[in-house]
Amino acid sequence: MATETDSRTGYGGDGAQHETFEDIDWSDEGGRTVLSRRDLGVLGVLAVLAAAFVYDYVVVPTDTATFEFDLPPSVPLFGEEFVWDVTQLDWLFILTLVVMVFYVVVPLYDNRRLTAYYWRQFRKNRLAVVSLGYLIVVFFVGTVGPIFIPTPEIALTQQYQPPMFTTVDSSVPLQCVGEVTGDVCHGSLAHPLGTTSDGKDILVLVIYGMQVSMKLGLITTLLVISIGTAVGTVAAYSGGTVDEVLMRYVDIQLTFPTFLLYLLLVFLFGGSLFMFIVLFGLTSWGGISRLVRSEALQLREEEYVLAAKSAGANAAYVIRRHLVPNVSSTVITAATLAIPGYILAEAALSFLQLGDPTIPSWGQVIAAGRSDLDSAWWISTFPGFFLFFTILAFNFMGDALRDALDPRADK
């Protein structure tokens, strides 16, 4: 059943924002799918990324970093040279950031009035605002930090160094980096969060864990929402046999043992963060597709969709122009709540030694310190705190976004 849309605000009775009759460019509702300026901008950036990717894998020698150049003396903090070897995961992460900028940040900037309304609703939840600030810090530190901070290395002379403002029996570490008072070793600024049993700095490990969590959560979620939204909207708009076939496939996929397949691949090829992202990203979109389909089934009966079809718009145009934008609030909320699940799953697998052993993650560090909780509590505690607060922050944000984006939600 169609819902009425307020001609002044553009909000329908279902709580979603719809284009009003005056907002629709009826001259553009033909059968051709016309790319918008934003789509052209995305294609331009993707072309540049593709050229850079080809340069990295064709021109740059295998044993040479992608970017490597000397730094001026004015920036001694980061050493004498800048070295960044862009991996497959880095390329996927860059692609994810490009999509987020063009399809999340740019629309929010273009619709500043609507963004201000959403922000007023969102900031009513103070815990969500604090969580947003925390996640922004984690994102930027985790994204930029590892580019300049070298990978933590084993330093057997710096084992079990305590965090700042704490002490430990000096007989435990092989050599105390901080001040020694009697038989007590004091923590120092050299290792603010202490070190592990093999001398790795925990602060550096935490920062690298931020990078792993952000890459994992954002890339996997982008794959999930992209496939799920496409399948859900196509199934809802097409109906009939197409809907039946797609939904029966979703039913089968939801019962597929992804975890067992991951264990088999780990046994055959070893743990890999890239493999985790691709596997779970390509097999975990069933729930999103069902959610999107239920929303799109209502939207396809809206007057503006029926008018677009009557004007000769093809299915691809209606789905891209009308269905996808109006299910975006549901997708964003579901995505925000899905990210912590993937982060927690990776941490659990790393804790069980089923993750990528070459990439320091929070779960890996927590596992490394579980046998030293009585004498070196900080090894597992600090990564555990960051993992806990990151999961909690995403959950708070998801609840607040659901209330802000869906007026039908209970306030």
Descriptive key words:
411 residues; mainly alpha; MetI-like fold; three-stranded antiparallel β-sheet; two-stranded antiparallel sheet; 5 strands; 60% helix; 4% strand; elongated; disordered N terminus; transport; membrane; transmembrane; cell membrane
Could you describe the 3D structure shown?
The protein is mainly α. Among the domains are: 119-152 and 206-405, MetI-like fold; 154-200, no CATH class. It is built from 14 helices and 5 strands. It has helices at 37-59, 88-110, 112-122, 126-148, 202-238, 240-254, 258-269, 273-283, 286-299, 303-310, 315-326, 328-351, 362-368, 378-405, and strands spanning 67-70, 81-84, 167-169, 180-181, 184-186. A 3-stranded antiparallel beta sheet has the order 3-5-4, with no helix packed on it. The protein has a two-stranded antiparallel ribbon with strand order 1-2. Strand 4 (180-181) and strand 5 (184-186) form a beta hairpin. Helix 5 crosses helix 11 and helix 13 runs antiparallel to helix 14 (378-405). The chain is elongated and about 85 Å long. It starts with 36 loop residues before the first helix and ends in a 6-residue tail after the last helix.
